[in-house]
Every structure is written in C-alpha cells, then in structure tokens.
C-alpha cells in the first residue's frame, strides 16, 4: 500500500506540474520570423503579419497588450485567419488589441469560434478523426466583428475575393469561411487568379478539400490557422492531433501541400479555449512573413 500510495502521489504531482507548466507556456507569447520566396519576379519585399486564433476575452489584458505590441513590427499587410472571439463581449477587446494593426491594410476570414461561444469539451475527442463536427453554442456578435474589420478597410475573404496593391505588388486574395463547420464554399470564388498578381489563399481550418481547391487554381501561398499547432505537443515528436485532416507534421509552420507543392503556412495561433488554457511544447505565436521575389 505504501508503494502504491507513493506512486499515486508521484503521478498526481507530475500531472499538477505539467498543468502548471502548460498554464505558464500559454502566456509565453512569441513572434516568429520566416522568409518565403513566393512573389512574382522583380517584386519588392512584402512583410505580412499572420495572426490566428486569438480566442480573446475582455479579461485577457496580457494577451491584449502583447497583440498591441505587434504593430511595432511595421508589417505591410495583416492577415487574420479566424477565431478572434471567445466571449460575448469580446469584440471591443479585439478592437482594442488590434487598433493600430487595423490601420494597416489587411484581410480576414472567420472561424467557428467567431460564430459560437466556447463550450466545455472532452479533450480526448480530438483523437477521434471520424467524429462528427457540429456547429453549436450560444451565438456570438459575429456581424459586429465583421463590421469593425471591414470598416477599417480589411478585405472580407469569407467565400469572397478581392485585390489590393501594396509596395507595388498586386495581391489577388481569396478565401473561404470556416471549413471546420462546413461553411466553406470555394466554388463561389473558384477560377484562375489574376495575371501578374500574387495569388493568396486564406482559410481558417486547413482541410485538404479546401487546400486542394487552392492548389488546383495555382495559389502562390495559403495561410491558415485552427490547429493551435496541436496545442499539447511532445518534445522531439510534435503535435498529437491537428483537429482537421492534415497530418501532424503539418500542424504548424511552413510546409508544402500536394503534388504541386503549394506553399502553405499554418499558424499555431495566439490563444486557447477558455476551458483549456494550457499549451505544452507549443508556444502561442504570431508570424511575420517576409515575402520576397521567387527569382
């Protein structure tokens, strides 16, 4: 009994220690830097700030202040890949956090958490790749969020597309609403991208069906989020789950998709669900992508 009691105590202590570490790491915000040679030949460099999965609540002042600080990076373009909200009153918090960033040209798509308030979930369900994903929860003020971002001049790419020129680079951007809850409608934007433009694809959840559509239309780069990089990872192994049908080795960062090797960047995101506020071996992040000419 003594050995068993000691073993249980040790196991419990290890679990508490891991949880405590996860709570700390979830506040260890970091900015990653990556250079990608994806722009048309002769293009000037373009600095793109990729933000995803803020999951903001009004009380998260540390996160809000860190997001504010990202304006000092002086990006040329900002792309938000969804899940800005995590609370009924979060829209003002998003505006506060992104106030200066919203003065910079940008584009966005939405995630399921921009439509529905977070709920308590069994974390082991994420290991079931055949589970049925349902759109559920109390509705959030989605239209208020969209209004704030579009009033700032950002491109709404939820099953929409648009063009913008920055630093002499013409960007033809198109996106989908959240594939995780089947709100994507790529057919509404499908077709060839504009000639002599940088073809940018944006989506929240990087499901293969959507990525293949971007690849078929020869996107130069696709930006996505949703995965949280796995959120709980094992050192020297990586993500245990992706919460979509991508393999774990593409849960975050740069990778290439399909036979065409389409460039793709999946953000590990800034936040977590308020009901699972931990990260392990997967720090919360934003990424400054320096896009350069491919020749």
Automatic annotation (TrEMBL):
InterPro entries, alphabetically? Calcineurin-like_PHP (IPR004843), Metallo-depent_PP-like (IPR029052), Metallophosphoesterase_sf (IPR051158)
Any GO BP annotation: lipid A biosynthetic process
A Pfam family found in this protein is: Metallophos
Q: Which GO terms describe its molecular function?
A: UDP-2,3-diacylglucosamine hydrolase activity
SUPFAM superfamilies given in the database record: Metallo-dependent phosphatases (SSF56300)
> What Gene Ontology cellular-component terms does the record carry?
membrane
Which parts of the sequence belong to the Calcineurin-like phosphoesterase domain?
A: 46-229
The cross-references to Gene3D superfamilies, in alphabetical order and at most eight, read: 3.60.21.10
Recorded hits in PANTHER family, A to Z, give: CONSERVED PROTEIN (PTHR31302:SF20), TRANSMEMBRANE PROTEIN WITH METALLOPHOSPHOESTERASE DOMAIN-RELATED (PTHR31302)
Stated name of the protein: Unannotated protein
Organism phylogeny = unclassified sequences, metagenomes, ecological metagenomes
């Amino acid at each position: 009994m003594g050995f068993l009691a000691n073993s249980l105590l040790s196991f419990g202590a290890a679990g508490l220690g891991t949880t405590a570490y996860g709570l700390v790491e979830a506040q260890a915000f970091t900015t990653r830097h990556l250079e990608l040679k994806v722009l048309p030949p002769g293009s000037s460099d373009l600095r793109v700030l990729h933000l995803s999965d803020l999951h903001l609540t009004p009380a998260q002042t540390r996160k809000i202040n860190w997001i504010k600080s990202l304006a000092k990076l002086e990006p040329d373009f900002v792309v938000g890949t969804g899940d800005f909200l995590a609370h009924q009153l979060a829209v003002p918090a998003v505006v506060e956090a992104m106030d200066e960033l919203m003065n910079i040209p940008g584009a966005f798509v939405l995630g399921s958490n921009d439509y529905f308030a977070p709920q308590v979930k069994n974390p082991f369900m994420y290991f079931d790749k055949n589970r049925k994903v349902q759109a559920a929860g109390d509705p959030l003020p989605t239209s208020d969020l969209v209004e704030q971002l579009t009033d700032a001049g950002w491109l709404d790419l939820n099953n929409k597309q648009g063009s913008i020129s920055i630093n002499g680079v013409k960007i033809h951007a198109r996106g989908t609403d959240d594939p995780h809850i089947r709100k994507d409608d790529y057919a509404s934007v499908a077709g060839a991208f504009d000639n002599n433009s940088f073809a940018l694809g944006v989506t929240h959840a990087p499901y293969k069906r959507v990525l293949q559509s971007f690849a078929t239309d020869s996107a130069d780069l696709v930006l996505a989020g949703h995965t949280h990089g796995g959120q709980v990872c094992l050192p020297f192994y990586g993500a245990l789950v992706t919460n979509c049908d991508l393999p774990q080795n593409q849960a975050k960062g740069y990778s290439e998709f399909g036979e065409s090797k389409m460039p793709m960047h999946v953000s590990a995101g800034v936040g977590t669900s308020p009901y699972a506020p931990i990260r392990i071996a997967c720090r919360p992040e934003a990424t400054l992508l320096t896009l350069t000419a491919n020749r």
